[in-house]
Specification:
2 copies of one chain form a homodimer. The first copy, chain A, has 2 domains: about 100 residues, Rossmann fold (3-Layer(aba) Sandwich), CATH 3.40.50; about 120 residues, NAD(P)-binding Rossmann-like Domain (Rossmann fold, 3-Layer(aba) Sandwich), CATH 3.40.50.720. The first copy, chain A, is about 40% helix and about 15% strand. Chain A is built from 11 helices and 9 strands. In chain A, the strands form 2 sheets. Chain A has a 6-stranded parallel β-sheet with strand order 1-9-8-7-5-6. Chain A starts with a helix and ends with a helix. At the A-B interface, helix 6 and strand 6 of A face helix 6 and strand 6 of B. Strand 6 of chain A pairs antiparallel with strand 6 of chain B, so a sheet runs across the interface.
């Protein structure tokens, strides 16, 4: 339906304007509510972020998290380990944080340098403090349709769609990318919302054949401008989860300038999914804080 | 490539003949090996099946499992509870079986009558005895790419494809059905084999638009003959996981007589995925038995 209307509009006016989703505006109420709630807390909620090595992306995401946590009053602890630190040192730090009653959430900045056993390190996090929804038990509970801590990007995509009243049930949704923190949980989230979901990735042949038919196209590859104008259907909803660059400015998966002339709704890289995902992270931290408090 | 060859053959001879996969033949080596191994065991491997109520499908599957287990020498215990038995009685039976060192695998015949908390009951099974790969932790480990007990139908589909040298990487795979024991794990399995995977289900609009493009079409709905001739591409591989009927004879998801004239490979309902899945169940039981033995 969106497609037909936008095609008609395009015929009438030559070109349509997308609704560009404003992540900051979309989340302002969430942040204001959390901020107001924390003002009344005797003990502030707290999150610990562990970085290993000095990757630019790790620093970028960690500093974004620190900023948003500080803005609402969540106490932010940062632990930085040099690349080469023994794995056991990191494991022991996580165990210490698991046992620290004043820590509500634990985040490991991924990817870790290759020599580390990422799965083992992630699964050391207590399930109740796994605010990015990465442990086996949280993933299994999410897939099995049970209460779980869910990856923030999946929550963000769901929130963006629902807040814009974009119907998902029965739609052709194409997710490009199958990362454990992004593509896969996003696909699972939209499948649970009754979308017909296709997962494309680096081994997909003729990617455009899939993307061109998508009512809702979600790209989460981290490959700059992989989604071009001729790969998108008129009137499609285009959600850009990918982010790369980090040196001077960040770049998304979507060729925004051109694709925005075809899409009905579109997100930007600076103020889209990743901005909303930060608000979802705040919600997950508060969820862990309240669960602990009510025990 | 398969599609091109079969189209050419069809042009030459008017109609192609499918390779009809013989599940029994495909698994004979597995069963023979397990049987020979068990002959040398002082303590036989053992599996317990719990049935609640008297559904025809539960009786059908349970008796199939009993037969195949007996044929290789796995000790089979059957526990039947009337519909209406208190949930705690079933939970306590599972706990008893978890603690019984002579029980290697525990199976709950699904679906349970509606008043039972299926998720709670399944997650009472010890992860190391969950031979149908249904607990949250086994599902999470499987999704996260770790060693796990994997649902038998997903293993069966993977085995059928690999034993017939059917390439999966890069192929357009369409899975119809999103059940937790069938469609979802099959989709995850083939995604891990680098297929581009689309998951269709009851809310999918224009199902045929997806199935017609599938290189490999897998149907797991339990709706008799939902997959018709005009929904299948020439030369496609068609795997029928669905099974219904159970009174006089079982019926599959695929209109076999007609679809087999278009498919390059096809399975039957009587001697296809479900037959291979029983062999995979034997392998899972032996895996649990050996894991325990080596502890």
């Amino acid at each position: 339906m969106i497609g037909i209307i936008s095609s008609l509009l395009k015929k009438l006016w030559g070109e349509i304007m997308s609704v560009v989703i404003d992540g900051t505006e979309l989340c302002s109420t969430i942040q204001d509510t959390i901020k107001a709630d924390i003002k009344n807390c005797m003990i502030r909620p707290s999150v610990a972020v562990i970085q290993v090595g000095d990757s630019i992306s790790g620093q970028y995401f960690s500093s974004k998290k620190e900023k948003v946590c500080s803005s609402v009053g969540i106490y932010f602890r940062s632990y930085k380990f040099e690349d080469g630190t023994p794995e056991l040192t990191i494991i022991n730090k996580i165990k210490e944080l698991n046992n620290d009653e004043y820590v509500n959430g634990i985040i490991i900045e991924l990817p870790l340098p290759v020599q580390y056993n990422e799965k083992r390190i992630i699964n050391t996090i207590s399930n109740g403090k796994d605010v990015e929804g990465m442990t086996d038990i949280n993933v299994g509970r999410f897939i099995n349709g049970k209460k779980a801590l869910i990856p923030c990007t999946a929550l963000a995509v769901d929130y963006i769609l629902s807040q814009n009243n974009i119907q998902v049930a029965g739609k052709n949704v194409v997710v490009v990318g199958r990362g454990k923190a992004t593509g896969r949980p996003i696909a699972n989230m939209l499948l649970s919302r009754d979308a017909t979901v296709t997962i494309c990735h680096s081994k997909t042949k003729s990617l455009a054949e899939y993307t061109k038919n998508a009512d809702i196209l979600i790209s989460a590859t981290g490959i700059p401008c992989i989604i071009k104008e001729d790969m998108v259907k008129d009137g499609a909803v285009v959600i850009d989860v990918g982010i790369s660059g980090f040196n001077d400015s960040v770049v998304g998966d979507v060729d925004f300038d051109k694709v925005s002339k075809k899409a009905s709704y579109i997100t930007t890289v600076e103020n889209g999914v990743n901005t909303v995902a930060l608000a979802m992270l705040l919600q997950n931290i508060i969820l862990c804080y309240n669960t602990k408090k009510n025990k």
